[in-house]
């Protein structure tokens, strides 16, 4: 058994059981990956992957346990490298942040600007996706931390830390009748076609639940993965938009007006997630505190030792 074999099974699982995709990611050959995995299975006496012919079609039950252990071992190896880097070059390195479009576009820019000014030798990367995708990036070790509203707490391998609370707003083209609604009601919103987030994104559950609780049907005519797309189609008058309040900027969003809808929908909480067994570089603590000032190094370390179960905003 060797670390290369553990990396191979992890990459195969990460790439949807595609050996060829895993081999490309690892810059090696497909037969070499298959051979190493078969040798590991023979040594362990189990099948990690179920097969149909030569194709992997599923992860077996013992395979799931092996993958979990492999993730911890490779994570600890990564931690060893970070310890060395921390003490040999405290202000240089890399930081990979997995997040959604809303966070990357509307919340993170001033944080990243301040961080780069403080740590010019740290190479930052932003990896975007929907909440399950960005959580998986951190769980697998492809990113250092995740910032998202949904899904973070659903991953047992991730420590979920609440950052800030937010709510939704309604946007419409200038002159739209709904802009005269005072106070804004769900009944009024339900009269119009709606453009809003995809079901995996940014508080969509709160939107659905509000209409269901009032026995109203929301006429959602289009869903999108990010706020900029929603605003584009609202400008085209395909419907009114429901989006995160921080995604509206009066100066930038010309032709649109916003109505606060915080009294209509439950609030959402954006969370930051890190691997429970991760060893954090000093500058990673600083980035987190720039994003969420209440999450100091002391608070984070206490949450790690307490497994995060008692921490709340």
Describe the structure in your own words.
The relative contact order is 0.14. Strand 8 (194-197), helix 9 and strand 9 (220-224) form a beta-alpha-beta unit. It is built from 12 helices and 12 strands. It starts with a helix and ends in an 8-residue tail after the last helix. It is globular. It has 313 residues and is an alpha/beta fold. The protein has helices at residues 3-14, 19-26, 30-44, 61-88, 101-107, 109-118, 131-139, 186-190, 204-213, 227-235, 282-291, 297-305; strands at residues 49-52, 55-59, 93-99, 122-128, 145-148, 158-166, 168-173, 194-197, 220-224, 240-244, 256-260, 268-275.
List key phrases describing it.
313 residues; alpha/beta; five-stranded mixed β-sheet; 12 strands
Beta-strand fraction estimate: 15-25%
Largest beta sheet: what is the strand line-up?
4-3-5-12-6
Which segments are poorly predicted (pLDDT under 50) over 5 or more consecutive residues? none
Decide which structural class fits the backbone: alpha/beta
| Number of helical stretches of at least 4 residues | 12
Mean pLDDT: 89
Rg, rounded, reads 23 Å
Any chance you could write out the topology, listing elements then pairs?
Blueprint: H1 3-14, H2 19-26, H3 30-44, E1 49-52, E2 55-59, H4 61-88, E3 93-99, H5 101-107, H6 109-118, E4 122-128, H7 131-139, E5 145-148, E6 158-166, E7 168-173, H8 186-190, E8 194-197, H9 204-213, E9 220-224, H10 227-235, E10 240-244, E11 256-260, E12 268-275, H11 282-291, H12 297-305
Parallel strand pairs: 3-4, 3-5, 8-9, 8-10
Antiparallel strand pairs: 1-2, 5-12, 6-12, 7-10, 7-11
């Amino acid at each position: 058994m060797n670390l290369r074999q553990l990396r191979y099974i992890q990459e195969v699982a990460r790439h949807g059981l595609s050996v060829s995709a895993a081999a490309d990611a690892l810059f090696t050959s497909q037969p070499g990956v298959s051979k190493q995995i078969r040798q590991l299975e023979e040594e362990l006496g189990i099948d990690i992957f179920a097969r149909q012919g030569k194709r992997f079609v599923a992860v077996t039950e013992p395979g799931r346990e092996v993958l979990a252990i492999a993730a911890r071992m490779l994570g600890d190896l990564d931690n060893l490298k970070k310890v060395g880097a921390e003490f040999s070059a405290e202000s240089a390195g890399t930081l990979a942040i997995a997040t959604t479009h809303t966070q990357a576009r509307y919340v993170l820019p001033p944080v990243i600007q301040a961080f780069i000014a403080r740590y010019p030798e740290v190479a930052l990367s932003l990896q975007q996706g929907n909440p399950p995708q960005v959580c998986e990036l951190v769980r697998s070790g492809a990113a250092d931390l995740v910032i998202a509203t949904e899904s973070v707490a659903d991953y047992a391998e991730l420590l979920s830390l609440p950052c800030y609370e937010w709510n939704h707003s309604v946007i419409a083209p200038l002159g739209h009748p709904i802009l005269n609604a005072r106070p804004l009601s769900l009944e009024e919103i339900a009269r119009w076609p709606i453009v809003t987030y995809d079901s995996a994104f940014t508080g969509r559950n709160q939107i659905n639940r509000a209409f269901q609780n009032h026995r109203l049907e929301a006429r959602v005519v289009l869903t999108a993965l990010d706020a900029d797309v929603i605003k584009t189609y609202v400008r085209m008058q395909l419907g009114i938009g429901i989006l995160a309040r921080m995604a509206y900027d009066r100066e930038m969003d010309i032709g649109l007006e916003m109505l606060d809808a915080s009294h209509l929908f439950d609030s959402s909480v954006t969370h930051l997630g890190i691997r429970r067994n991760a060893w954090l570089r000093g500058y990673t603590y600083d980035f987190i505190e720039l994003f969420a000032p209440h999450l100091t190094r002391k608070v984070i370390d206490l949450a790690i030792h307490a497994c995060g179960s008692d921490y709340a905003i």
